[in-house]
Amino acid sequence: MRYEILGPLRLTGEEGTSYIGARKVETLLAALLVRSDQVVPSGRIKEEIWGGSPPKRASAAMHVYVSQLRKILAAATGAADSPIVTRPPGYTIQIGPDDELDVHAFESHIRAGRAHRQEGRHEDACTALTSALSLWRGHALAGVSGGPLIGAFTAYLEDARAECQEMLIDAQLAMGRHREQVGRLQALISENPLSEVFYRQLMLALYRSERQADALRVYESARRVLHDELGLEPGQPLRDLQRAILLADPRLGAQAASGSAPFGHSLHRLDRVGAVGA
């Protein structure tokens, strides 16, 4: 069985791909998957399904949902034994040796990408990080209602996805693929207008593409958005990069050809504005 949560929750087994139509059963499965192979207390499951106002017969209803989920998984896998195990004080879902959970593969690819990045193996880093991002089909657990457990886990996943995108672009910049990143970064900024990292990366990509004026316009756009939304000025790394562009600091362009140590190490240690490995 393959459990997929990097997008709408879905199951892929011997009978093909399926979705869970019953919303509360879907929430139950999501709560178990975000703590796979761990016991999720019954009280926590009730909070995920009903929030702070469970009905009087919540325990009985939960037992019904567990039974329904076991039948759904049995139909999808054709297996006699259910992966849903009752284990006081609650339930757990066991991911067997022949099962997959897409978030585990995502985290494995990120670890590999991060390791390649630290070793300066930019091409390998790109391969691993691209594989990680290819697993996503939309927002994590899109459409699943839940409480603090599911909410905290999806927030973690979205942060990990953003970090993966940042590292991938860093690796691409380290290999001199500046022009290729401009459109991608513009799209990422539209989705994440408060991310100073993407603004810095776009400024660097534009500068190395001989578009200095456009790079400075990006800074002004970032400054305006941050001021209007948060009442803040850009952080020091972004200001340092703007200053370096204005001065045509030679260290900005050196990385385009060499892919050596990141620019940030030599100018106030800017956070990930140059090659990977910061």
Give a written overview of the molecule.
The protein is α+β, with helices and mostly antiparallel strands and 278 residues long. The protein has two domains: 2-96, Arc Repressor Mutant, subunit A; 177-278, Serine Threonine Protein Phosphatase 5, Tetratricopeptide repeat, CATH 1.25.40. 60% of the residues lie in helices and 8% in strands. It has helices at 23-33, 42-50, 58-77, 102-118, 122-134, 148-174, 179-191, 196-208, 212-230, 236-246, 250-258, 263-266, and strands at 2-4, 10-13, 16-18, 40-41, 84-87, 90-93, 100-101. The strands form two sheets. It has a four-stranded mixed β-sheet with strand order 3-2-1-7. It has a three-stranded antiparallel β-sheet with strand order 4-6-5. A hairpin with a 2-residue loop joins β2 and β3 (16-18). α1 packs across α3 (58-77). The longest helix is centred in the middle third of the chain and has 27 residues, at 148-174. The protein is elongated and about 70 Å long. It starts with a strand and ends in a 12-residue tail after the last helix. The relative contact order is 0.10. Residues 254-278 have low confidence and may be disordered.
Layout: helices, strands, pairs:
Layout lengths: L1 E3 L5 E4 L2 E3 L4 H11 L6 E2 H9 L7 H20 L6 E4 L2 E4 L6 E2 H17 L3 H13 L13 H27 L4 H13 L4 H13 L3 H19 L5 H11 L3 H9 L4 H4 L12
Parallel strand pairs: 1-7
Antiparallel strand pairs: 1-2, 2-3, 4-6, 5-6
Provide a compact summary of the structure.
This protein is α+β, with helices and mostly antiparallel strands and 278 residues long. It has helices at residues 23-33, 42-50, 58-77, 102-118, 122-134, 148-174, 179-191, 196-208, 212-230, 236-246, 250-258, 263-266, and strands at residues 2-4, 10-13, 16-18, 40-41, 84-87, 90-93, 100-101.
